[in-house]
Design goal:
By secondary structure, the protein is of the alpha+beta class. Helix content is 33%, strand content 38%. It has two domains: 2-98, Ribosome hibernation promotion factor-like (Double Stranded RNA Binding Domain); 105-185, Sigma 54 modulation/S30EA ribosomal protein, C-terminal domain (SHC Adaptor Protein, 2-Layer Sandwich), CATH 3.30.505.50.
């Protein structure tokens, strides 16, 4: 597994890098035999250290975890424990995912835009409520089953996931609802 370990305006020593590689490698190795790479980023916010980790699995799925503590090693351990819990929860499905799928998850390219947050700016434009695009970039949209999309959303810790439904090829969305349940949006015309 390839590791990218970095710090945002803090120095990451060799001892911490070695510790991260060893511990994270063991944690991910218990649940997935073929992780491809991991990105671990440390930063500091006032008196707290923050640790963000993203592990890319060979199936195309990503696992994300975040940890905070007053010491940098403790922040990593919190992050690693959260990742361990997520992987343990989905261990059976991750293993079954390898059996059902002979190829890794397929991704398609899509445009992604960041819009200005201030609605007052929108109204000041001549054409009414036209948002100002402040960033334009490419993103990847995976082709998954609904169950795999829910699992990917949970593993990545995001509130929603846009995906292409592998049954019919249409674009779908799964999202975390305010009541804690998961919603699924399938905009195909039903009549």
């Amino acid at each position: 597994m390839r590791f990218t370990i970095s710090g945002k305006q803090i120095d990451i020593g060799d001892a911490l890098s070695t510790h991260v590689k060893t511990e994270l490698g063991e944690t991910v190795g218990k649940y997935s035999q073929r992780p491809t790479d991991a990105t671990v980023t440390f930063s500091k916010d006032a008196h707290q250290f923050l640790c963000d980790a993203v592990v890319h699995l060979s199936t195309g799925l990503n696992v994300t975890a975040h940890g905070t503590a007053t010491e940098i090693y403790a922040a990593f351990e919190t992050c690693r424990e959260k990742m361990d819990k997520q992987l343990r929860r989905y261990k059976r499905r991750l293993k079954d995912h390898h059996k059902d799928r002979s190829e890794p998850v397929e991704f398609g390219q899509a445009g992604m835009y960041v819009l200005a947050a201030d609605e007052d700016e929108w109204e000041s434009q001549d054409s009414g409520l036209q948002p100002i695009i402040i960033a334009e970039m490419e993103t990847r949209v995976p082709t998954l089953s609904v169950g795999d999309a829910v699992m990917q959303m949970e593993l990545s810790g995001t509130p929603l996931l846009v995906f292409r439904n592998e049954k019919h090829g249409g674009v779908n969305v799964v999202h975390r609802r305010d009541d804690g349940n998961v919603g699924w949006i399938d905009p195909r015309g039903n009549g």
